[in-house]
Design a protein that fits this description.
By secondary structure, the protein is an alpha/beta fold. It has 2 domains: 83 residues, Immunoglobulin-like (Sandwich), CATH 2.60.40; 190 residues, Rossmann fold (3-Layer(aba) Sandwich), CATH 3.40.50. Helix content is 26%, strand content 33%. It contains 6 helices and 17 strands. It has an 8-stranded mixed beta sheet with strand order 1-16-17-15-12-9-10-11. Helix 5 packs parallel to helix 6. It is globular and about 55 Å long.
């Protein structure tokens, strides 16, 4: 299990009864988490006086209940700063467990000691983009949501990277990769964090079980002659680390050599020292 344990501005304080108690900088949030199937006593004070609580509806979705939370605030991770705000379906615009992947990418790019080009697909609000750019890479950031791409630009600016070589694109990831292949472009690092289901800006349907293999195969064609990494992250239930490792071994290792590692990613829980699983990642590297 890969544990994101270097945070100072974020922590999972406790987890019980389908919810987790979190500290995001100066603010305490309670949010649902389907992994939390245990019922332990909620002794931590934050359970009883959070700044905001997201309540899941039995009919699907849910809504925020606010007590004392600003519309927007920020937290830092090492040399990066991320803007936060509560929005649809419990999210804040950042997945803190991804810090373990940010650290991995940063180290690979920094130690390469050469110009590095990275492609970040389904790039959301740009956590990985900021990490790679802060290590000195040129990054192409692709997401189907104009709003998320705008948010990513703000995160880069907040991290002192407004003038970094980052190319932001609102585009369907598969269509973009197909065009990059035709253009003959290549990348030293590829990152993808695909949703279980989604639609591109032109209405293109994405269903991970049907589409992920073909996209990995396409992206393998974009790898440079001196590649560093290929990372797949997923929050889709049932898409185990070993499945993503198998994809990378078939389409990348078999053609370029190297090796694949895969595992769950997780966050430490402060009150008991246990680890809360948050998703899965597979990494190919030379």
């Amino acid at each position: 299990m890969w544990l994101s344990k270097s945070w100072k501005d974020y922590e999972v304080i406790d987890a019980s009864s389908g919810e987790k108690l979190e500290r995001w900088g100066d603010y305490i949030l309670v949010r649902p988490d389907p992994q939390v199937i245990w019922n332990t006593p909620k002794k931590e004070p934050g359970w009883h006086k959070p700044n905001a609580h997201y309540h899941r509806s039995s009919k699907g979705g849910g809504s925020w209940e606010f007590f004392d939370l600003p519309e927007q605030w920020s937290i830092g991770y090492k040399n990066m700063t991320f803007l936060l705000k509560p929005f649809s379906f419990k999210h804040t615009g950042l997945f803190p467990e991804q810090a373990v992947n940010w650290d991995y990418m940063y180290k690979k790019i920094h130690e390469a000691n050469r110009p590095v080009k990275v492609l970040n697909l389904f790039a959301y609000t740009g956590g990985a983009t900021v990490a790679c750019a802060s290590a000195g890479a040129s990054v192409t950031h692709v997401d189907a949501s104009k709003g998320m791409v705008g948010w990513a630009k703000e995160n880069a600016a907040s991290s002192g990277l407004a003038d970094a070589p980052i190319r932001y694109l609102v585009d369907d990831c598969v269509k973009f990769v197909e065009r990059e292949i035709r253009r003959g472009n290549h990348y030293d690092g590829i990152i993808m964090d695909p949703p279980s289901y989604g639609r591109g800006p032109g209405g293109q349907v994405w269903k991970i079980e049907d589409c992920i293999y073909n996209l990995v195969a396409l992206c393998a064609k974009l790898m440079s002659d001196d590649p560093l990494f290929f990372i797949i992250n997923s929050y889709t239930t049932g898409l185990q680390p070993a499945v993503m490792a198998y994809l990378l071994n078939i389409e990348v290792t078999a053609k370029l050599g190297g090796k694949v590692t895969a595992d769950e990613i997780a966050l430490p829980v402060t009150c008991n020292g246990l680890a809360l699983p948050c998703g899965a990642t597979a990494r190919w590297s030379v």
